[in-house]
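User: I'm preparing a small set of examples for a lab meeting where we compare how different chains pack in three dimensions. I only have the primary sequence for this one, and I'd like the structure in C-alpha cell form so I can line it up with the others. Please keep the answer compact; I'll paste it straight into my notes.
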Amino acid sequence: MALQMSLTTSSGLRVRDAYIRIDEYSCNRSNVVSARLRAYATKEFAEHGMSAVEEWVVSLTADYSTDAPNTKKQIYDHAKTLPEFELADDYIAVDGL
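Assistant: Understood. Below is the C-alpha cell output for the 97-residue chain.
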C-alpha cells in the first residue's frame, strides 16, 4: 500500500510519479495517530534505503472499532483528503516495469 504522484520538492526538484509511503507512525492514548510519509523517486529507491526526496507528517484520529480498516489504510485514506495529496493515486505495482 502506497501512493504515487508527481511533485516538486521543497528544494525545487521535479519528481514524476514519486512513490510515497508511510515510513513510521505512532498512536497516543486518545487514538490520535501521527504518521510520517516520505516520497522517493521510485519504489526501488525506497526499498534499497535511498534518501527520501520529500517528507510530510500527518495526524488523524484513528478508528479502532471492529469494522474499521487497518490503521495504515486509514492513514492513506486521510492523506488523500489533504491538499498536498489531492493529486495522489493509489500505487499499483506493475510486474516487469
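A couple of notes for your slides: The radius of gyration is 14 Å. The chain has a mean pLDDT of 94.

User: Perfect, thanks.
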